[in-house]
Structure to design on (494 residues):
């Protein structure tokens, strides 16, 4: 409960300061270029990496990327680029309804 | 990204193959230790390959051990490995160094001076002038004070409106803009005469202001006053005015030429030979014998300056002498042909002198025949306005 309240305060402050949300919270931001490149910012780690399937853990869930000849590039602590022929992207949210 | 890879190339990188069941764990640990790797490939579910920097290899190997993965170097890339391969070729490295140092040393001197904007005689004059000022081919580039030189040229020469100098590589480019000579314009309020600027016979004189002192049919010489710039009154003193008027006169232009009946002219046979020689700072090396195989020949000499880039001239010139063999032929003209040739020649010469060919009123042709040649004289009679204003000097 306390944790959740603290988060709310933080998000309010950041809203008041008009900060981009992905900076203040650790929400992932996806930038998709064509169907060949996905930049994922604010990720936590790589769960699975195959030629045809990439699973990336973020703070609010898991991002699954299906495709062919996928490769990971420009990996830093905060962001990663997945390159290759991307077929589909789907998410598995692990955060329960916070709105209540 | 590419710059990062380039830096890794300079320091060397290796392509490693990691084999094991915990590849993802291995990757995550690498990332959390801020190890940069690129060109990742997952060929099988247990095999993973990527490029990593040489300096990171020990750390990566440690991580791989922790993750129970096998690590193997597949290929070594980058400059250190490349240099290692050529380590034994010392002379090659030394000559490479000598060449680089040589080029750097050579590029500090001027090897070519280019003057644009003026004709050849003035180019020569300017060239001589800058040579007396100590700027010449083969001078050290940094010792040249261009601004000073520009100022000196502009002070010394009146016919130069602007000089620009620039050192481009080993090339000194001098751009010159010539000043137009201004015609002397006489102010409306000043007093002047009208003076003949050519010899001729007056055909028409109209004075709008001033006293005409010549009349129709008078022969005038260059410099004679045609319309006086003052009015003489019976009761008043001389009153000076700005003379104005039109003076037209017959002016003659003539040219003479001797046309010989038998003429020699050279004809190229089409045989040619090329002779190369190399000129290094006025030291000439002939690659062939300089004597030609032909008895009569024309020579066309082309000098090429060697340059590396468009502005990097080297102090080496290649001289190509092309010799064209020629034959002497004789042609015999009869009188009429010789006359026609002479007239045609002279007419084209004269027509260049005359500004307005429409005003030609008469053409006279005189011929004088001898046994060897015919002398042709062509005279153009032209109606021209010959008056120019000249200020009255007291």
């Amino acid at each position: 409960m306390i944790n959740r309240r603290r988060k709310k305060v933080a998000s309010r402050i950041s809203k008041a300061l008009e900060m981009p949300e992905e900076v203040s919270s650790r929400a992932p931001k996806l930038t998709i270029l064509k169907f060949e490149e996905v930049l994922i910012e604010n990720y936590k780690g790589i769960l699975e990496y195959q030629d045809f399937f990439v699973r990336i853990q973020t703070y609010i869930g898991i991002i699954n990327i299906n495709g062919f000849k996928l490769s990971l590039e420009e990996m830093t602590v905060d962001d990663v680029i997945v390159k290759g022929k991307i077929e589909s992207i789907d998410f598995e949210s692990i955060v329960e309804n916070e709105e209540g | 990204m590419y710059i990062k890879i380039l830096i890794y190339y300079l320091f060397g990188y290796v392509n490693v193959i990691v084999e094991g069941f915990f590849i993802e764990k291995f990757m995550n640990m690498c990332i959390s230790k801020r190890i940069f790797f690129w060109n990742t490939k997952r060929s099988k579910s247990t095999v993973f390959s990527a490029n990593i920097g040489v300096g990171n290899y020990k750390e990566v190997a440690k991580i791989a051990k922790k993750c129970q993965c096998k690590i193997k170097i597949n290929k070594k890339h980058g400059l250190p490995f490349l240099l290692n391969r050529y380590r034994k070729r010392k002379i090659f490295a030394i000559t490479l160094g000598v060449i680089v140092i040589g080029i750097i040393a050579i590029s500090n001197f001027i090897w070519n001076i280019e003057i644009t904007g003026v004709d050849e005689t003035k180019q020569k004059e300017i060239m001589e002038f800058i040579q007396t000022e100590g700027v010449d081919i083969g001078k050290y580039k940094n010792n040249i004070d261009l601004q000073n030189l520009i100022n000196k040229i502009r002070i010394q020469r009146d016919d130069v409106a602007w000089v620009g100098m620039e050192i481009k590589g080993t090339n000194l480019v001098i751009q010159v803009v010539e000043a137009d000579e201004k015609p002397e314009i006489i102010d409306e309020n000043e007093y002047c005469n009208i003076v003949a600027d050519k010899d001729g016979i007056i055909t028409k004189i109209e004075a709008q202001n001033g006293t005409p002192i010549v009349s129709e049919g008078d022969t005038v010489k260059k410099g004679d006053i045609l319309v006086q710039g003052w009015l003489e009154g019976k009761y008043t003193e001389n009153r000076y005015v700005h003379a104005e008027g039109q003076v037209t006169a017959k002016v003659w232009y003539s040219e003479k030429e001797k046309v010989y009946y038998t003429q020699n002219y050279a004809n190229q046979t089409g045989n040619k030979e090329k002779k190369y020689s190399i000129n290094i700072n006025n030291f000439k090396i002939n690659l062939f014998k300089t004597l030609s195989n032909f008895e009569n020949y024309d020579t066309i000499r082309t000098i090429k300056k060697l340059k590396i880039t468009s502005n990097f001239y080297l102090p080496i010139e290649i001289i190509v002498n092309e010799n064209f063999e020629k034959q002497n032929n004789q042609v015999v003209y009869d009188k009429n042909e010789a006359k026609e040739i002479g007239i045609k020649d002279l007419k084209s010469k004269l027509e260049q002198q005359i500004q307005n060919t429409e005003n030609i009123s008469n053409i006279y042709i005189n011929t004088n025949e001898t046994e060897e040649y015919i002398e042709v004289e062509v005279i153009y009679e032209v109606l021209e306005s010959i008056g120019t204003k000249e200020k009255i000097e007291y």
